[in-house]
TrEMBL record:
Gene coding for it: Cnig_chr_V.g21393
InterPro entries on file: DUF4473 (IPR027913)
Keyword Signal: yes
Keyword Signal annotated: yes
Protein's organism: Caenorhabditis nigoni
Keywords of this entry: Signal
Protein name: SXP/RAL-2 family protein Ani s 5-like cation-binding domain-containing protein
Pfam families: DUF4473
Signal peptide (residue range): 1-16
Length: 119
């Protein structure tokens, strides 16, 4: 159990620390719509992501500690999951497909990164 917590903590901190090209809300919305998610659900997911991003910066302008970042990632996923449960079955299926596709893409990136020694 402890080993899996360490792994989750490491991955979450790496994800939060790794610079990633940031999408504009319009780009994110277009991507969500391309998976068949309704505009209402897409707007809700973007709102949740925007709120999470804003919460990541403390009032004094500093960033979260690694443990706070891990907690924020779990909260983001929980908020997105709770929101999607209120949406239509079609939106839920489209979101599931999108999350599975994104997970497969991320898994492939991590596998490639590990095979190339982090390069």
């Amino acid at each position: 159990m402890f080993k899996s917590f360490i792994l989750v903590a490491f991955v979450a901190s790496a994800l939060s620390a790794a610079p990633a090209p940031e999408k504009t809300p319009e780009e994110a919305r277009a991507e969500l719509l391309s998976f068949g998610i309704s505009s209402q659900a897409a707007d809700g997911l973007i709102r949740i992501g925007t709120e999470a991003k804003q919460a990541a910066v403390k009032p004094d302008g500093s960033t979260q500690s690694p443990m706070e970042a891990i907690g924020a990632v779990f909260k983001l996923f929980a908020d997105m999951d709770a929101f999607m449960k209120t949406q239509s079955p079609e939106d839920q299926a489209a979101a599931k497909k999108m999350f599975e596709t994104k997970k497969a893409e991320d898994d492939a990136k991590w596998q490639n990164l590990m095979q190339n020694g982090g390069k």
